[in-house]
Design a protein that fits this description.
The structure is a single chain. By secondary structure, this protein is mainly beta. The chain folds into two domains: about 35-160, Jelly Rolls, CATH 2.60.120; about 170-245, Immunoglobulin-like, CATH 2.60.40. About 5% of the residues lie in helices and about 45% in strands. The chain has one helix and 13 strands, in the order αβββββββββββββ. The chain has one helix at about 35-45, and strands at about 70-80, 80-90, 95-110, 125-130, 130-140, 145-160, 170-175, 185-195, 200-205, 210-220, 225-230, 240-245, 250-255. The chain is globular and about 50 Å long. It starts with about 35 loop residues before the first helix and ends in an 8-residue tail after the last strand.
């Protein structure tokens, strides 16, 4: 659920607490102090890292989101702005987006039609804090959603969907018959188990911040199984599977834990 929950951290920052577009506000008191060990633990396990200002948690009325299938897991450093694409397939029951950063100037969750998600929207629950935003959308419209995050410092962005009954699902990914530690740059046979009616299946290796660092070609081996050959990345990575559903809408699934090659 939550890899790390920080309470009563010092150095509160001046940050916007809603999703109304406006000029970015510079944090004149610097970035929020965080525990880097806890942050790295969240990054390694795919958890949400909570960026609490001093005393904020006690009055937050936090509603912890229920996590389902991972769509975005990104941890890294932000200079000014970054846009995260969040593909949502047809029939998804809910979409949950978490974003936290050491200095949050602005966070916008943009729907596929270009409209910004607000607290007043009937299908949305939006919790805004000094350094975080948590949004849950019921029965989200299929298509490419976007999170626009403005600010600076270390960030954590995650997105999860609760799929429909026949939605895409990644059951597992393995390097076949490997009985030792992964080695960087080695080529190995690999197997993917993925359910649902999907098209244009793409398998990628992504870094801790979500950037693509490798790709692999797979062919159907029957019974929701796919076989391919993979080159192990040189840095810690996750396996990401994307494509289109039966209606041509985009989807993505990503594994939670970072794999660390030797």
């Amino acid at each position: 659920m939550i890899a790390a929950l920080l309470v009563l951290l010092a150095a509160a920052a001046v940050a916007q607490q809603d999703q109304t577009p406006r000029p970015a506000v510079k944090d004149t008191r610097g970035l929020l102090n965080i525990n880097r060990d806890f942050y790295e633990m969240a990054a390694a396990t795919g958890g949400d890292f909570y960026f609490w200002s001093a005393g904020e948690f006690a009055t937050s009325n936090l509603q912890i989101p229920i996590e389902h299938d991972e769509v975005v897991l990104s941890y890294g450093s932000l200079e000014t702005k970054r846009v995260f694409e969040i593909p949502v397939e047809s029939g998804a029951r809910s979409l949950t987006v978490f974003a936290g950063v050491q200095r949050k100037d602005l966070a916008l969750l943009v729907r596929p039609d270009g409209n910004v998600t607000h607290e007043r929207d009937r299908d949305a629950s939006v919790q805004s804090f000094q350094h975080m935003i948590i949004a849950t959308i019921q029965a989200p419209v299929a298509g490419m959603w976007r999170l626009e995050l403005h600010g600076a410092g270390m960030f954590c962005v995650t997105a999860h969907v609760q799929p429909g009954a026949d939605g895409p699902g990644m059951t597992g990914f393995d390097f076949v018959e490997l009985r030792r530690a992964l080695r960087r740059s080695e080529s190995l046979p690999c197997e993917l188990v993925f359910s649902g009616t999907v098209r244009d299946l793409q398998v990628e290796f992504v870094a801790k911040d979500g950037a693509t660092i490798g790709r692999a070609l797979f062919q159907s081996a029957g019974d929701d199984r796919y076989a391919g050959k993979c080159v192990v990345p040189k840095e810690p990575f996750r396996v990401s599977v994307s494509g289109s559903d039966a209606n041509g809408k985009p989807f993505r699934r990503i594994e939670r834990g970072l794999r660390v090659p030797q």
